Automatic annotation (TrEMBL):
Keyword Zinc: no
Any GO CC annotation of this UniProt entry: cytosol
Domain Glycosyl transferase family: start-end pairs: 103-334
Family matches, as InterPro entries: Anthranilate_Pribosyl_Tfrase, Glycosyl_Trfase_fam3, Glycosyl_Trfase_fam3_N_dom, Glycosyl_Trfase_fam3_N_dom_sf, Nuc_phospho_transferase
GO molecular function, one term: anthranilate phosphoribosyltransferase activity
Name the UniProt record assigns to this protein: Anthranilate phosphoribosyltransferase
Keywords: Amino-acid biosynthesis, Aromatic amino acid biosynthesis, Glycosyltransferase, Transferase
NCBIfam families linked to this entry: PRK07394.1
Length: 347
């Protein structure tokens, strides 16, 4: 048993009226002890549920992120691009109701010249929704056996990288099992949305569900001062996917500029209020292949809605309408399908 960890656990687990928030340094110490197994399983499980009940602060998330950045894997980018690499923070416990668009978006952005990094593992509690790893598999891409050096080579060659955490960050992946045992998402689930496995300045895009989560994300990243530019998206099931059944709520933080709130309505750009459901993995894989083969499906409309925004937001296109046209052109010209084939060949 770790006496030092027990003292930190006592602070967050002392009850509604007597608990105390951890400092950034204390949160970093607690995270390091959990990752290294210096805290016992009983202590780790108790900390996770107590921290969830107390609710994390921005300073605590900043300290936790300090350790993830310090101890986790990092990619660089050795390819040629005039755009800042983008890291998408997508919930590790996946999707269960709506069709995920993250990989299609990554392929479109990469086809437009923007380097993109995704990260995640296998199906994760408590939701056990379809994971990015599984979707990549369904498209013929297997990242799971690659070393960090091999992922780096693929990223340099194609502009797309995927950090498979069970292999490349096993210390963090070792904490996943506690989620099933406590039956709730711990604050580490928020941490994964803002972890950026990139050694350099990247544009981080984080999904969120609840406004307090967005507030903590902004506080944590602002406190760390890196990345300097980041975006929050109240997306489908906490992802970075813009919804079509409601106004998209987006937060933008840029250096030396005030926080910007952007509201986007699908109606203003001719899209229906329909989110494509996730019926089965096999149907999803077929539909993604059909989108890349220039077939007009509902999933194609969702892909355009998302990619059009990101092409505008990340500086490829001058406005939203131009972004939508650019996304459609990339798909229609076969460049997005070619990007997937390029990744498969590189691996």
């Amino acid at each position: 048993m770790s006496i030092a960890f027990r003292e930190l656990l006592k602070k967050v687990g002392s009850g509604t009226h007597t608990h105390k928030d951890l400092t950034r340094e204390e949160a970093a110490d607690a995270t390091r002890m959990m990752l290294l197994g210096e805290a016992t399983p009983a202590q780790i499980g108790a900390f996770m549920i107590a921290h969830r009940i107390k609710r994390p602060t921005g300073a605590e998330l900043a300290g936790m992120l300090d350790i993830y950045v310090e101890m986790g894997p990092k990619l660089t980018y050795g390819g040629e691009s005039k755009y800042t690499p983008v890291v998408f923070g997508i919930p590790y416990d996946g999707r269960s109701r709506t069709a995920p668009l993250g990989i299609i978006t990554a392929l479109i952005l990469s086809a437009a010249g923007i380097p993109v990094i995704l990260h995640g593992g296998d199906r994760t509690p408590t939701k056990y929704g379809i994971s990015l790893t599984e979707i990549w598999h369904g498209l013929g891409v297997d990242w799971t056996n690659l070393s960090l050096e091999q992922v780096q080579k693929v990223f340099d060659a194609t502009g797309v990288g995927f950090v498979y955490t069970p292999r490349l960050f096993p210390l963090a992946n070792g904490l996943v099992t506690y989620r099933d045992q406590i039956g709730k998402r711990p604050p580490f689930a928020t941490l994964e949305l803002i972890w950026h496995p990139y050694a350099g300045e990247a544009h981080l895009i984080s999904g969120f569900v609840h406004p307090p989560t967005e507030k903590n994300i902004i506080e944590a990243l602002s406190m760390r001062g890196t990345p300097k530019t980041f975006t929050t998206v109240k997306g489908l099931e906490g992802s970075c996917d813009l919804p079509r059944d409601r106004t998209a709520i987006i937060g933008i933080v840029r250096p030396d500029m005030p926080f910007e709130r952007l509201l986007l309505s699908h109606n203003d750009y001719g899209f229906s209020n329909y989110n494509v459901p996730l019926n089965s993995p096999e149907e999803l894989f077929d539909d993604i292949h059909s989108v890349l083969a220039q077939k007009d499906l509902e999933l194609s409309q969702s892909a355009l809605w998302n990619a059009g925004f990101y092409l505008w937001h990340l500086g490829v296109s001058e406005d939203m309408n131009a972004g939508l046209k650019a996304a459609k052109a990339l798909i229609d010209q076969g460049l997005v399908g070619a990007k997937l084939a390029e990744i498969i060949k590189a691996i």
